[in-house]
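Service request form, structural biology core

Requester: graduate student, group of Dr. S.
Request type: structure prediction, single chain
Budget code: on file
Notes: please return the result as C-alpha cells.

Sequence provided:
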Amino acid sequence: MVNTNDMGQKIHSLQETINYKFNNNHMIIEAITHSSYANESKNKNIRYNERLEFLGDSVLGLTISEYIFEKYKHLPEGELTKMRASVVCEASLARQARNIGLGQYLLLGKGEELTGGRDRESILADALEALIGAIYIDGGIEESRKFVLNYFMDSIVLASKGSLFKDYKTDLQELLQSKGFEKITYKVVNEYGPDHNKSFDVEVLFGDTVIGRGSGKSKKEAEQRAAKEGIKRGQ
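Core staff response, request fulfilled:
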C-alpha cells in the first residue's frame, strides 16, 4: 500500500500536471484508486473510482456534445453523433490519459500492476472519466468543462476531419438501419481470467441473428471488435 508521503507527492504532482488544485483531496485519491487496490487493502472503507467514472462519462459527453453543437452548426445530427462517439471512445480517452501520464499515478493492486494495468486502455480510460467526475464534484461544471476542452480539443479537431478513431458501433448501426429496423444488441457471452486481468467475449445481434463476435480486455473493446466484424459481414 502507498504510504502517506508517497500519496502526498502523487496528489501534488498530478495536480501540477493537470493545472487544477482540488479543494478536497479525497476526491482526487478516489479518482486514481482502482478497484483492485481497494480489494487488496486491509482498509475496507477505501473508495475506488467506478462511481466517479459513471459521473465523469456523463460530464464528458455533455461537454463535448455542447461544444460541437455550437462549433459545427453545419453538421446534421448523425454527423455530430459520429463525431462525439469518436472523441469519447475508449481509445481516445486512453490516448488523453497517456498524454498526461495518468497511468503513473494510479493506485493498483499487485496483480493488476504485474499484468500491465498502468497502460491498459480500459483502466486508463476509466480513470480519466473518474478524474473528470472528481473535478466536477470538487469544482463544478465550469472547471470540469475547462479541463475537458483543454485536453480533448485536438481530438475534436481530428474527429471533425474524420481522422481520429473509428467508432465501429455507430457505423454498424447506420449500416444495418439502412437495411431494416431489427434491434441491434450486444451480449457478453463469456468472461474469464482473474479479477485483475479479465477478458470478455461479446456477440452483436441483429434481431436474433449473431452477426459478429469480438474479444477484449474490456466490454467496450470487445463490443467494438464485434461491431467491426459485423460491418464486414453486413457489407
